[in-house]
Design a protein that fits this description.
514 residues, 4-stranded antiparallel β-sheet
Length: 514
Amino acid sequence: MRTRLLPLLIVLLAGVLLALGFPLAISMAAGEQQKVIVDRIDDSARFASLAQFVNTDGGGAGATVEDAERSATLDTELGRYYRLYGIHVGVFDRLGEPFATAPHSWHLPPAEADTSLPGTTLSPGGASALPEPTGSVHSRARPFQDAGEEARSAYDEALNGRRSPDPEQVWPWQTSRRLVVASPVIRDGDVIAVVVTDSPTGALRSRTLQKWLLVAVGEGAAMLLALGAALRLTGWVLRPVRVLDATTHDIATGRLKSRVAPTGGPPELRRLATSFNEMADNVESVLEQQRAFVADASHQLRNPLSALLLRIELLALELPEDNEEVASVRTEGQRLARVLDDLLGLALAEHTEADLTLTDIGALAQERLSSWRPLAEEKGVRLTGTCPAVTGWADPIALSSALDAVLDNALKFTPADAAVDLTVEARPGEVVITVTDEGPGLTEEELGRIGDRFWRSNRHQNIHGSGLGLSITRALLEAGGGALEYRHHHPHGLSADLVIPRNRPANTAPLTGE
């Protein structure tokens, strides 16, 4: 669940951060550009104030010494400004002709209509000016540096008495973009010239990029913080779920005493844990009642059954020894006694907790082989075994009982001159005792039901037994964390695997000295 919940939270947080980051980055870029535009407006306004009283007729007959000084001052200021900031600046008259520029070769591009009549300029009103003299300072025969269409557009706007509109936004990747600002020069209410500034954008783009990098770093840091918060949040929400899952697994594997420990988390999950513990208590109580009933019933029935069998024996003394009815009653009574003993053993196996210790499984299996070998020789069955020294965690008494039940079952169905083989094998994390017989075996359907209580194959009804032996075996092994598995043995027969854990289960106390 965490792998599904965490990406969802991360995607939502990333979407929120991006939704905030993009407008912030755009606002920063716009703010940086607006600062530059305001500075250029101030600069162009200052140059306009200098050019306001300069005679734009150049060296005409009406020029005075004062006009020359003002013109020289304007040229000096423009040149100093260009050398200091690298910004192209110029004062252009109403015909678009440069009056003072820095650098001196900088000029406005001709209007679109001028392209059909070289050497002429077009006034804003549409009147054509006379061609410049060939020797003029501003003659188009000399190599000029063209200002660009943006400068021409800003000039035309300022010529109407308005400041040029703000340029389009400049982005860090637009290396060829420039900022153009134009301000009108007004004298006696009339526009007599226009100041145009054409600024490079390298510094602007660099500052914008630096601020964007800071935003990116901030977004990354915020994302890391959000990721940490998401991890903590998912851990807080899912911790009760993990505890509940582990407890459910413990109960499903037979540890009915397991309960959900109090943990944090949302109130709904805490209430769920409390309800689960209440349900587990009720289920355990019902199971305990069933086990107690089976154990009590088995124990209480044994006394009257023993008395009944004794009376049958006394009655048999009064009858002929070969009386078939007495023999049949005696057999059924003994069978009923075995069933009651097995029921009591099953109830005790399911109720008693296993006392697990580190056990030599090979030695225990060899001991049980030696105990069953006389019976095997009596039936003519070869009982062999391979029992290396392997340790595992088991209850020796419960494992001996389980191994006895499996060996008894194998010898019971194995014909004479056949073999029953026992092997002990160490595997990763477990020890497996395999008992293989050469009996008639079971079908697939019967193999799925083996170990069910009171179940016996229809083909084996004439063989004595209660059908509880393997159920007891499975209960004994599962109480210690083990398992009992059956499978086909080729060409015929069955293989029973008794699985014992090699690692100490979590619910056992450590050995002394560990």
